Amino acid sequence: VHLCLDNEKDVYYRRAKEVGFRARSAFKLIQLDQQFRLLEGVKRAVDLCAAPGSWSQVLSRRLQAHKDKTAKIVAVDLQPMAPIQGVIQIQGDITNQDTATEIIKHFDGEKADIVISDGAPDASILLFVYVCVCVCVILLLLLSIVENKKGGTFIAKIFRGRDIGLLYEKLQIFFTEIVVAKPKSSRNSSIEAFVVCRDYSPPRDYVPTMAPILFNEKSHMDNDQSNGLYRYTIQFVACGDQSSYDADSSYPLQYEHDDNLGANEDNENENDDADEFMNDDEFLHLFVRLFYVLCFKYKDDIGGDNQ
Ligand code: SAM
Question: Which residues cross the membrane (predicted)?
Answer without folding.
Answer: 125-146
